[in-house]
Task: structure prediction
Amino acid sequence: MRIRKITLREIHLRLLSPFETSFGKSELRRILLLEADVDGTFGWGESTAGENPFYCYETVETAWLILREYLWPIVRGREIASAEEVWDLLAPVRGHNMAKAALEIALWDAEAKQKRVPLANLLGGTRDEIPCGVSIGIQPTTAGLIAKVEEALAAGYQRIKIKIKPGLDVEPVRTLRERFPRIRLMVDANSAYRLEDAPLLKRLDAFHLMMIEQPLGWDDIYSHAQLQRQLETPICLDECIHDVEHARAAIETGACHIINIKLGRVGGHTPARRIHDLCHAKPIPVWCGGMLESGIGRAHNIAMSSLENFSLPGDVAASARYWAEDIIQPEVEVTAQGTIRVPTAPGIGYEPRFDRIESLTKRREVLE
Ligand code: OSB
Ligand code: MG
Result:
């Protein structure tokens, strides 16, 4: 496989409704797409870098810069036997996993298309459908929150995650638990608390949550280990896990019992699979997180979620929860049982809608 050319694009896509977390609100997504030309076969990737450095330090701007100045020169014109080799080639660049992932996953798509197999198969996936949950942002009112939960349950989603922040934590959870005593419920704090808040977080133990996701500092595994000793609710780490060694440290220090894997955060399919395999051996269940992706990133999430240890419902939901119109054909749909069927067409298995992508493109750069 010779990597001939990549095209970077920034598209703008407006969310159907604003998505609010403890670190901010997202309404108009700026999305970096990457199209890789490998021997004339085109693979597509998406960087999940945000509009601002509040979830992690990367942004669309930094990802673009790192891709152009440092990652492209490493792979430019290079002959590789498999996309699997790329992650180690990119190792001289420290961090910047979302920039790396955009490129790495595009090459996996291209390889699967060349081999005429679904990406899920190439990755070693075993599931033909994946269990789905929803992530519900912070809502202005409790009545609004209940309505969102009801809507997701009616659509079949298998678990509900709500975002929490100081001042909007125990009470919304209590209200939901009283209203929905038996649903699979969890919370995500996106690093909004400190270890001193342990007594407050301990009150959440009363509500039998599946897990509490990333309560403490974005890179602070040690404090999570101290917190987990005080909680019955399992901690799931998101922001803290950047690679397989972070996962190992978190598991061995007892900082979490569950790990959320995101392709952007860990740098692509190869590192994601390594973390998956480590967790599988421990055993620690994993699930696929979401970053409000367009259909391209979503399709990659679906392929990755077909691996065996993705045993818990993830944050990968239907296109129609996010966008009036997605950029892939067909759109991602969820069954009445709250699952997504893993596509069987080659590569990511959904066709990028080229004309629509063109019309949404605000900036483009071809590197060859
Ligand atoms: O922490 O999982 C998170 C969205 C943006 C940034 C961080 C997170 C999220 C979500 C949304 O929870 C998941 C999704 O529906 O894509
Ligand atoms: Mg999270």
In short: The chain has 13 helices and 15 strands.
